[in-house]
Amino acid sequence: MLEKITVPLADRSYPIHLGSELLFKTGGELSHLQFPQRIAVISNPTVDRLYGRAVLDSLEKSGFLPLLFNAPDGEEYKSFETLQSIYDFLIENNFDRGCGIIALGGGVIGDMAGFAAATFLRGIPYVQIPTTLLAQVDSSVGGKTAINHPLGKNLIGAFYQPEMVLIDIAVLDTLEPREVSAGLAEVVKYGVISDYEFFCWLEENVQKLRERDGETLIYAVKRSCQIKAEIVELDEKEGSIRAYLNYGHTFGHAIENLSGYGQFKHGEAVSVGMIVACKVSAQYGYCTQQEVDRLTHLLQSLDLPTDPPEFSLDEYVISMQRDKKVKQGDLTLVLNRGIGDVSLQKVTDIKSIFSSIL
């Protein structure tokens, strides 16, 4: 079964292809795009060992000339040093503006390879082939590219849309359970911010999601991508409602930063961040304690954490003040209104808002 979703951005619109065993069709799909012949495939050793040969063979059979570059594996390597090594590889192998990039991996690879594509020679085309659930439902779609800075997550980056996103659901079979749970945190996010019925569907299908039932996962990924595409269409560069997609991320990024990138998976940190955001929403009267409890139960049933790690209130506040959504000292929080809707709330005193929760 092949599903197709379009991210509608006028002359920069692009397709998301979703199905099973799609990696073996990579070359054919890129031929339809008239993608450049010379391609740098940016991956990491873990993904390369599993899927690198399949992608390279498919590209070569379709007449492409791919070269593989493996970056180190892990969030802690989403850095300027790794980005520099990608640039070195491209320059040393004489890549030019008539070449392209494929990001083959999870969110770290997708963000870094996308940022390399956005900035190398002021921009060359690229394609996302996400190999984790989290990347399939979130980071591969929408054109956000970035690297981390030691003082904050994703502080250096660019908006740069891919030519295509190729999502092969079969790759999820090789993920560790913890990776699947981390991806499901972002899936739950879409229900909270935009679709109450989808949230209820997730509650009803917890066991099938945990068992990685193919049809269930395809629907979960498809609906997540549809919601994100609809938001990106209306607000590509986060001038307004695209910020809704950051629900749970302000506090989640603070957890990742304070813990040292890599200790908490992104989805795990977002899971905790969503509960914190939901409790703040309840403080403002935007949702009920029952809705906080529903979200907590769903996340816990998907083996996700819901309690913040024990850093001090001051440490959390300092980290959140470096968030990208801080403007002139004020932090804009994404807060849920019940389940299925959100709004933006400007906070002038971060410490007082979070003190009762932490």
Number of domains: 2
| Stretches with pLDDT under 50, minimum 5 residues | none
CATH fold-level assignment of the largest domain? Dehydroquinate synthase-like, alpha domain
Helix content: 40-55%
Described by strand count, sense and barrel closure, the largest sheet is:
7 strands, mixed
Spatial separation of the terminal alpha carbons: 46 Å
Order of helices and strands: EEHEHEHEHEHEEEHHHHHHHHEEEH
Whole-number mean pLDDT:
95
Order of the strands making up the biggest sheet = 1-2-9-6-5-3-4
What is the general shape? globular
Q: Can you describe this structure?
A:
The protein folds into two domains: 3-174, Rossmann fold (3-Layer(aba) Sandwich); 177-355, Dehydroquinate synthase-like - alpha domain (Dehydroquinate synthase-like, alpha domain, Up-down Bundle), CATH 1.20.1090.10. It contains 14 helices and twelve strands. It is globular. The strands form three sheets. A seven-stranded mixed β-sheet has the order 1-2-9-6-5-3-4, with helices on both faces. Strand 5 (100-105), helix 4 (107-119) and strand 6 form a beta-alpha-beta unit. The model has no long low-confidence stretch (mean pLDDT 95). It is α/β, with parallel strands linked by helices and 358 residues long.
